[in-house]
Every structure is written in C-alpha cells, then in structure tokens.
Amino acid sequence: MSTTAVEVVPYDRAMEETAEAGEGESRAERKERTRRAILDAALALAADSNLAAISLRQVAKQVGVVPTAFYRHFGSLELLGLALVDESFRSLRLMLLDVWRHAPEYRDFIDGSLPIVAQHVRENRSHYAFIARERTAGPPRVREAIRHEIELITRELATDIARSGAAEHYSSKDIGLLADLIVSFVVTMAERLVEDPDSEERILADARTQLRMLLVGALGWRSTGRT
Amino acid sequence: MSTTAVEVVPYDRAMEETAEAGEGESRAERKERTRRAILDAALALAADSNLAAISLRQVAKQVGVVPTAFYRHFGSLELLGLALVDESFRSLRLMLLDVWRHAPEYRDFIDGSLPIVAQHVRENRSHYAFIARERTAGPPRVREAIRHEIELITRELATDIARSGAAEHYSSKDIGLLADLIVSFVVTMAERLVEDPDSEERILADARTQLRMLLVGALGWRSTGRT
DNA sequence: CCTTTGAGTGAACGTCTGTTCACTCAACTA
DNA sequence: TAGTTGAGTGAACAGACGTTCACTCAAAGG
Questions:
Q1: Structural contact between residues B138 and B146, judged by C-beta atoms closer than 8 angstroms
Q2: pTM
Q3: How many helices (H) and strands (E) are present in chain A, helices listed first?
Q4: Between B50, B177, B218, which is nearest A217 by CB?
C-alpha cells in the first residue's frame, strides 16, 4: 500500500462504514485519532532517516489524508517534533518514578533499575530512537527541548542521591556531577539498546558491570570543595 | 551571494584570471580543489540540519558548480558522508597518538589529555559536529562507519590501559569495558563542547572531576571473572 | 430545525529535487 | 603536433515539495 519500506498501522478513516457498529465517534474523538495517526506516521517515517529529512506530504500520505489536513493539527513538522518529545518524556518520567520508588539504595539501584530501563526502551523503541536521533540532529528547538528534559531528570536524580545519603561526603556540586555522569551513561546505554535490540542481554550485562565500576569509584571519592 | 545563512569560503574557480599569476594548476590539482570545496560545502550546509536533509543541488550551488559536476567526485551524498567520516577520524587518530604518547600514567592521563582533546574539538568543530550528528542520525552506512571507528579507538585504548599496567587486577574483558566507559564519556564531553563552545572552560572542569570520580572507582574495582 | 463550526478535500502555484544526456575545451600524452 | 581524456556545462525530464485558497458536509449547539 505504501511506497516506502515503513509499515504503519493504517489509519482507518472509514471506520463508521464497518457494517455492524451503529454508534459513531464524536468530533473530538475523530480529531484525536487523526492527530495520533500523524504522530505515529511521523515517528515511523523519521525512523528511516530523521525529522528534518521527512516531508509533510510523506506524513500525510502515510496517514491517508490530504496534505492540507496536516495543518489542522500541527503548524509545522518542528511543532510536531516538540509534541513527540513531550510524549516521549511523559512516559519516561512515569517509568523513572517507578525506578526511584523501588530502589532507594545503591546496590539495588543497579540491579533493580537497569532492567526496568531496558524494558521501557524495549516497549517504547520508536520513541527512544526518536530522542536519540533528534537530540543531536533535530531542529534547534527540538534539540533544546530534549536537552532541557534530560537536565530536569539529572536534577531529580541529584536530589534523590542527596536524600539517600549515599554520598554524604559529597559537595552538592559534586552530587550534581555524579548524577550527570550516571544519566549520561544511561543515555548511552539506551542509545545502544535502540540501535541493536537483539543484543539487549549483553548490553545490559556490560552496562551493569560498568555502572558498578563507576559507582564503586564514586563512593570512594571525596569532594575537595565546600557545601 | 548565497540564499542560505551558511557562510563558506567561496570556491574561486576563476583563479587563473587573477592577472599576475602566470602558472596554472595541474588537472589533478584542480580536481582536488573542487573535491575539497564540495566536502567543505556539505559540511557547512549539513551544520544547519544534517546530511540526510541537504540536497546535491544545494551543495553544488554552494560550491559554485553545476549539479552534474558533483557526480565527477562522489556517487552520492552518502558516499560524500563516508569521505567526511574518514577525514574526521584521520585527524582524530593523529591527535590520539599524541595523547597516548604524552600520557602514559593515569593522573597525567586526565590533566594531560582532556585539554588536548578540547583543543582538537575547538580547532575541528565542524568535523566533530558532523560526527556527533551523523553518529545517531546519519544514513545507516555512515552511522556504521562512525561506530566502527569509535570501536577501533576503544580497542586501542584498551590495549594501552593493559600495557600501562594501571589495571593489573582486571580481566581483559573488564579492561575493554573500562575503555568503553572512558571513550563513551569523552564522546559525550565532545558533544557538549561542540554544542556550546563558549562554555569550554566549565565543561572541561566538570569533565575532569567526573573522569576522576570514574577512574578513582575503576582503580579500586576488582574483576570477579578470569583472564 | 436551522445555523455555525471546523476537519478534511482537491486544485493550483512556483520552486526545488535527482538524474540523463550530449556537449565543450583545456590539460595531458604519445 | 595531433589525439585522447575527463572536469565541468546546460538543457531537459518527471516528480515531489510547502503553502494558498475556496470548497464540502457531518457533527455540535442554540
């Protein structure tokens, strides 16, 4: 049906014609359904290159809608990209709440958290792939939005580390640097899981060892500054 | 002159008309000069988005040459991208030789190496920006080429660590993981230097602290496996 | 019931895309 | 000096691009 290699759940606009179903959708429901279809189509099309390289018309064709209809939902591909960033991180934050709730201690942090992150990447591969690509190659505003979200997460991890008391002898600045080190490492790990999902087991095992190396060192570290 | 915001040293094809100069260029010299101009133009144009989002015609216009002429030098933008990867890493490897020659010991490794890397990023910003973007968002073959180059560097670092004897109690597998950890970290640092060159000083200071945290831990680490 | 609203339509526009082809004409070679 | 080579030309192509505009026609609402 599609001329590209991308496979997407077709947007069934003729739903109300499916014989049996008597009840239709509300206006708002239909709009939301089209919006979702556009987001999914863009996500799928960008997966073969990136957001800046796809066209509004490709997205519209993938959705099964005329190009003009796109503008009823997004002012531009860039704004669509910002919506995808938002959507991706909303899910990610929920997952992190889970991680931080179940792993207050550091030994647990590694063995308990990494598999949860890996599972979330597995279940949201297209979103993580989107973030990994657009983080460095997206339109400037999209890049900035992603950078900001990651920074927020880093800050949350920092306060969590401070609260846990695992790094009592750290200055607050150094706690921030440690949090940044960990987040950067996990970002790299997520990139690898996205790039090669079949090697999840090995990637995860290696990451666990590396995170232990890192934290064993971090816990032995002593800040030289104050506060 | 150009319709885009990109500013590039114009490719002076009318050089032989500059009055005084009597001696011309050889055929091969002219070809090489055009090739260079194409590489530089692509690097500059891709900086505003990415390789997959620019067109052969934009590159040709930027160079000041007819679109067809492009094919005399590269079969496609993807092959041009591979040439840029090659060029970027050739320079990078020379820099690393310098680093490894001057910093055989770990304390020196941090204080001696990071500034050299930072300087190289500063002097080759466009190449590093290209690598940072195309590493995750480029055409598959370009991504693969970059991944391979980074893996080679990781292996070299691993043998260097092993040779230095700084991690005698490590299994060879764990030395590889440590090298990977360090390389990943430096890649992240380079990304940041590229993204925000004005903050070089802060980025470098933070990275130094983080690398110390990491290595202090790594040196206290003890492998549990064999070999 | 009659009016308003707004998601989706379809044609049209000027511009840009990759690629082909036959060509020129200066540098090289024999 | 005569002949070959090959980097760069310029026209032409069929198609895709973003954006505009006036439009339809069900659902929503008074």
A1: yes
A2: 0.90
A3: 9, 0
A4: B218
